[in-house]
Amino acid sequence: MGAYILRRILLMIPTLFGIMAVSFAVIQFAPGGPVEQVIAKLQNPGGGGDALSGGGGDAGGGGNFDAGGESSRYRGAQGLDPEFIAKLEKQFGFDKPPLERFFGMLWNYVRFDFGESFFRKISVLDLILEKMPVSISIGLWITLLSYLISIPLGIRKAVSDGSTFDVWTSGVVIVGYAIPGFLFAIMLMVLFAGGSFYDWFPLRGLVSENFSDLPWYEKIVDYFWHLTLPLAAMVLSAFATTTLLTKNSFLDEIRKQYVVTARAKGLSERRVLYGHVFRNAMLIVIAGFPGAFISAFFTGSLLIENIFSLDGLGLLGYKSILDRDYPVVFATLYIFSLMGLFVTLISDLIYTWIDPRIDFERRDV
User: What is the tally of structural domains in the chain?
Assistant: First the structure.
């Protein structure tokens, strides 16, 4: 097992390098980089923001292009002092060749030195740590709720396979999976958040403005009051896959010979189901828990955080892409990719821990 873990860790290096290299190359061709963002703000002061409020340092991107002007390669820079443009390029790290910027960025990231945000006076790592509790909170509750719904529902569907209950719940599950989470979120906002019908739930934020002044029990109520609509929007599609996976796992186990033998010995159906089938059927479901959490944590909350104005990593990433804040964009990509690779490894190790019959050492990686 030690050799398998070592091989997997070594394979993470080229995988992570490829992810960062492709993303960096794409960014080089993306118009409207941070220099253009500053120039646009200078041309339109009403747009807000300080032209030189960023942190500087080596940038992980480009985003510059030839706009056809003789004095500058940046659109809208005609008439600006070339020394000022050069100062901007140096501040954002664009005075260096792309390869030098890329390998310099990787060297810093290996040491977990992510620099500072271009447009916020804060280090990227501190910014990510500041937003992470919101995303962890959403991801954790989504994963727990989806499992609490999916496992009992999947077991019931497996036991009553082909029945009316199984058919209509499958229809509900499929429809729930087909509806995009953001569309369901908008529908919930219209219905229950002051739209055209009811005003029962808040529209913005994870807590109320007076949260710090509330007693502890009211803080709990306020927290879940704000989470109700975002969780409902995400759980609808999150539990569908796990439900069908649980059902199919139980069906596969129920048809095996040891279940027939247990029933022949006179064991009750409940004893057979939860004493024998449950442990084996839950292997794939339990082992997928870390991956399900990471999926809800990083990807599922992106649109939901934007719709409900939850100040988490999803909203941070979205704003960073719009602002071309490349240190934040590349740092979050690096951290998320690294965590995703390790979570995949952890999921495999959980398989072997739950079922000792699984041995990855005998398989080619």
Answer: 2
Q: Are 64 and 98 in contact (CB under 8 A)?
A: no
Query: Which 3-state string (H, E, C) describes 188-246?
Result: HHHHHECCCCCECCCCCCCCCCCHHHCCHHHHHHHHHHHHHHHHHHHHHHHHHHHHHHH
Q: Are 167 and 225 part of one and the same domain?
A: yes
The length of the chain, given as a count of residues: 365
Q: How far apart are the first and last CA of the chain?
A: 12
pLDDT, tens digit, 9 for 90 and up, residues 273-309: 877 787 777 777 776 777 676 766 665 567 777 788 7
pLDDT digits (tens, 9 = 90+) for 18-34: 988 998 888 777 766 66
Same domain membership, residue 156 and residue 279: yes
Q: Do 121 and 53 touch, CB atoms closer than 8 A?
A: yes
Same structural domain, 205 and 319: yes
- In the chain, count H helices and then E strands: 16, 0
Determine how many CB atoms are found less than 10 A away from the CB of residue 284. Answer: 17
**Residues 194 and 149: beta-carbon distance below 8 Å:** no
Domain that holds residue 41: 17-118
CB count in 10 Å sphere of residue 340: 21
Calpha distance 256→262 (Å, rounded): 11
Q: Taking the model in full, what pTM does it have?
A: 0.70
Distances in whole angstroms, Cα of residue 99 to Cα of each of 21, 62, 106: 10, 11, 11
Q: What is the CATH number of the domain that holds 215?
A: 1.10.3720.10
Residue 312 contacts residue 138 (beta carbons within 8 Å): yes
Distance CA(314)–CA(306), nearest Å, equals: 7
Angle between the 82-92 and 34-43 helix axes, to the nearest 10 degrees?
140
Q: What is the pLDDT of residues 108-132, one digit of tens each?
A: 888 888 888 877 878 888 888 888 8
Torsion angle, alpha carbons of 225, 230, 233, 239, to 10: -90
Three-state DSSP class for residue 32 = coil
Long-range contacts of 76-82 (CB under 8 A, 24+ apart): 76/36, 76/39, 76/40, 76/43, 77/39, 80/39, 80/42
